[in-house]
Amino acid sequence: MICKDDLTIGILAGGKATRMGNNDKGLINVGGTPFVEILINKIIPHSKDIIINANRNISQYKKYNYPVVEDEIKGFKGPLSGIYSMLKATKKDYLFTLPCDCPNFSWEIIETFLKNKKSNELCIAHNNLRSQPVFMLISKLKLKSLENYLKNGERKIDIWYKKNGYEYIYFDKNSNFFENINTMEQLKEYNEK
C-alpha cells in the first residue's frame, strides 16, 4: 500500500506546444496565472514533493523553488521523455505525472489513484471514454523499461504502457479534471468562462 508520502508529483511542461504558437505552455497565463503556478497551488496543500519537467525558460521555472528537470533524451520526444527524466530524478519510489495544461486538476485525482489501485507499478487514468495516459502513477521499477523503449527511438505513450502491466483507474465520464488547453482559441474560451 502506498500513500502520498511515497510520491513525487511531476508536472510535464517540456513540450513544444506547436498548437499554441510554440509558446512555453507552462508559463502561459490562464486568468492571470501561469499554468504551472495554478497546478503548484493545487498540489502544495497536500504535498511539497513536486518536480517540474521543462526544456525551455529553466530559470523562470526555478523561481518556483522546486527541482526542474530537462529531458535527458533531447529533441522534444514527447511526454514519455519527460516522465522518464523525472522518474530518474525523484528520490521517491513513485512518481505521479500530470500535464501542465489542465487547469481543472484536483488533488482528488491522486486520492482516487491511491484508493483504487490494485497494481503497484503502473496506473493510468481513464475517464470511461478514453485513457488519459499523462495522468500516470509509475513506480521506479519501470525505469529500465522506459529507458529501453525511448532509446530504441519509440515515443508513443499508449504502446509503452500497454506493454507494461498497466491498470486503469476509472473516473466519471463527465469529470472535467482531464480537460486540457491545446490552442490559443481554447485558452480564450476558457478565460471567458
Explain what this protein looks like in three dimensions:
With 193 residues, the chain is α/β, with parallel strands linked by helices. The protein has a single domain, classed as Spore Coat Polysaccharide Biosynthesis Protein SpsA, Chain A. It contains seven helices and nine strands, in the order βββαβαβαβαββααβα. The strands form two sheets. It has a seven-stranded mixed β-sheet with strand order 5-4-1-6-8-7-9, sandwiched between helices. A two-stranded antiparallel ribbon has the order 2-3. The chain is globular. The protein starts with 6 loop residues before the first strand and ends with a helix.
Sequence-ordered SSE layout with sheet pairings:
Elements lengths: L6 E7 L15 E2 L2 E2 H9 L6 E5 L3 H5 L5 E2 L9 H11 L4 E6 L7 H10 L5 E5 L4 E9 L3 H9 L5 H6 L4 E4 L13 H8 L2
Helix pairs in contact: 3-5
The low-pLDDT segments are: none
Rg is 16 Å
What is the CA–CA distance across the termini?
Answer: 40 Å
Largest sheet: 7 strands, mixed
List SSEs in N-to-C order. EEEHEHEHEHEEHHEH
> How many structural units, i.e. domains?
1
How much β-strand is present in the residues?
15-25%
CATH class: Alpha Beta
**Name given to the CATH homologous superfamily:** Spore Coat Polysaccharide Biosynthesis Protein SpsA, Chain A
How many H/I helical runs?
7
Can you tell me the overall shape?
globular
Query: What is the name of the CATH topology?
Result: Spore Coat Polysaccharide Biosynthesis Protein SpsA, Chain A
Order of adjacent strands in the largest pleated sheet: 5-4-1-6-8-7-9
User: What percent of residues adopt helix (DSSP H or I)?
Assistant: 25-40%
Mean pLDDT: 92
Number of distinct beta strands: 9
Any idea what the CATH architecture is?
A: Alpha-Beta Complex
Which structural class do the helices and strands define? alpha/beta
